[in-house]
Amino acid sequence: MRFLIMLEQTKTGFSAQAPDLAIVTHGETLQDAKRAALQAFGSTSTPIAKPE
Length: 52
Known about the structure:
3-stranded antiparallel sheet
């Protein structure tokens, strides 16, 4: 399955949201926000890159 993950820069860092799964995470860096989102998904795998 694939889910939308939205990454957004904020005043204090970055947020990562997956609205279909009701997940919202944050981090000081983009990598921190992505890592927190993966942990919230319960996954340690690397996200699939968007095809060109």
